[in-house]
Amino acid sequence: MKIRSTLHLDGKTFPLQLFPVLQETDDHLILKLAAFVFFHAREPFVVTSPQQHAALANQDFFPDLMMADYSNQVTLWVQCGKTTLHKLSKVTNRFRDARIWMLMAQPHEARQMAENLEEEGNNRIEVWSFQYGEFERWKKLVQEQNDIIGEANETSMNLVINNEMFMTELQRIR
């Protein structure tokens, strides 16, 4: 699946194209679209390889979305869906000043990730989730071509997507 969207959010228009990198699933791309909507005001960079941005030089892994300051220091690392604790540990060690934000589709997945991070002693990562049933509603509305109009912030959306209303608030698990 490739997702092409035109987003009209909070008075700004953003074209956005998402396509699978490596073995990314449709659900992963749909989460990535949601994360972009949540952070649209900061105009995050969609990453498809570590070679795309100088802030990721010599890295063997990369986020789904990121922001960097003018000195090419990562300031925001957005990870969508499940990932390994090993990768998250490396991210927190290498990007000490970055805000690390995870978006999970299901609350039970987010709680499991939060528990695992707690056991590892990793306290830097924010874990957020759609509420039960909300990701499925979002997923049904997302198509290969999308027109998204509305407003959003880092924790909520109030949108019309492809002529259907969608409102949700994320829940912070950690």
Tally of helical runs:
4
**Strand percentage:** 25-35%
Give the biggest sheet. Answer: 6 strands, mixed
- CATH fold assignment: Restriction endonuclease-like alpha-beta roll fold
Distance N to C terminus = 31 Å
Give the CATH superfamily.
Restriction endonuclease-like alpha-beta roll domain
Spans of at least 5 consecutive residues with low confidence: none
Helix vs. strand class = alpha/beta
The figure for the number of domains is: 1
**Spatial extent as radius of gyration:** 15 Å
Written as H for each helix and E for each strand, in order along the chain, the element string is: EEHEEEHEHEHEEEE
CATH architecture: Roll
Q: Could you tell me the mean pLDDT?
A: 95
The helicity comes to: 25-40%
CATH class category: Alpha Beta
**DSSP strand count:** 11
